[in-house]
Amino acid sequence: MSRKNFLFTSESVSEGHPDKVSDCISDAIVDLFLEQEPEARVAVETLTTTNRVVLAGEVRGPASITADVMEAAARRVVKQIGYEQEGFHWKDMSVEIHVHGQSADIAMGVDSGDNKDEGAGDQGIMFGYATNETDVYMPAPIHYSHMILKTLAEARHGGVTELGPDSKSQITLKYEDGIPVGAASVVVSTQHRGDVSQERVREIVMEHIEKNLPSGWMCPEGQLYINPTGNFVIGGPDGDAGLTGRKIIVDTYGGASPHGGGAFSGKDPTKVDRSAAYASRYLAKNVVAAGLADRCTIQLAYAIGVSHPLSLYVDFHNTGNVDPARLEKVLFEIMDLSPRGIREHLNLNRPIYERTAAYGHFGRTPENDGGFSWEKLDLVESLKGHF
Question: Catalytic: 168?
Answer without folding.
Answer: yes
